[in-house]
Amino acid sequence: MLRVVVMVSGGGTNLQAIIDGIANKEIEHAHIVGVISNNYGVYALERAAKAGIDHAVVSPKDFADRTSFNEALLDKVRSYEPDLIVLAGFLVVIPEKMIDEYENRIINIHPSLIPSFCGTGYYGLKVHEAALARGVKLTGATVHYVDKGTDTGPIILQKAVEVKDGDTPEILQRRVMEEAEWKLLPEAISKIAKEKI
Ligand code: GRF
What we know:
By secondary structure, the protein is of the alpha/beta class. The protein has helices spanning 13-23, 43-50, 66-79, 96-101, 125-134, 169-193; strands spanning 2-8, 30-37, 55-57, 84-87, 106-110, 138-145, 155-162. A seven-stranded mixed β-sheet has the order 3-2-1-4-5-6-7, covered by helices on one side. The protein binds 5-O-phosphono-beta-D-ribofuranosylamine.
């Protein structure tokens, strides 16, 4: 049984997709042992609580400096003894020490077809604003392994999503979430749990 820790920062719709994927057996041989947020009071924590999943906040605001925050974050991750760490809308840079310790066991969902619209500064709505500004007809989402770069690790899965006339960043973000993110992340976890990757 794959022990999965999910790291979140906000609404947790990707976390919910994983929770639902396990409940409806789309994901087998895996269970979420912990949810970690860098922010207090976000809805992702409510989603974890409703699902009876252990959850914690490790906030940079509670630490004097980034080094002590990084240590606390890694200690919290270690405490769950994860086989897989899933960054689901997690907006904090992962400490290099954590990437070394969990090499090829951290995956991230990015709301574009990497290598387009990714890297430093491309997160959340900014990704979709850039796609609309460029005028692409197709965008989508990518699940990839996390390495020490930003959105640069080996790509696991991608799914294309059509950009439609009149799309705003918010409309496009929602379509990418519904048609790509919420499908790809459970599929990637399922494949890893079945050791197909
Ligand atoms: C989404 O845009 C996702 O692509 C990105 O973080 C945002 C919020 O995700 N990774 P969630 O609703 O908190 O899962």
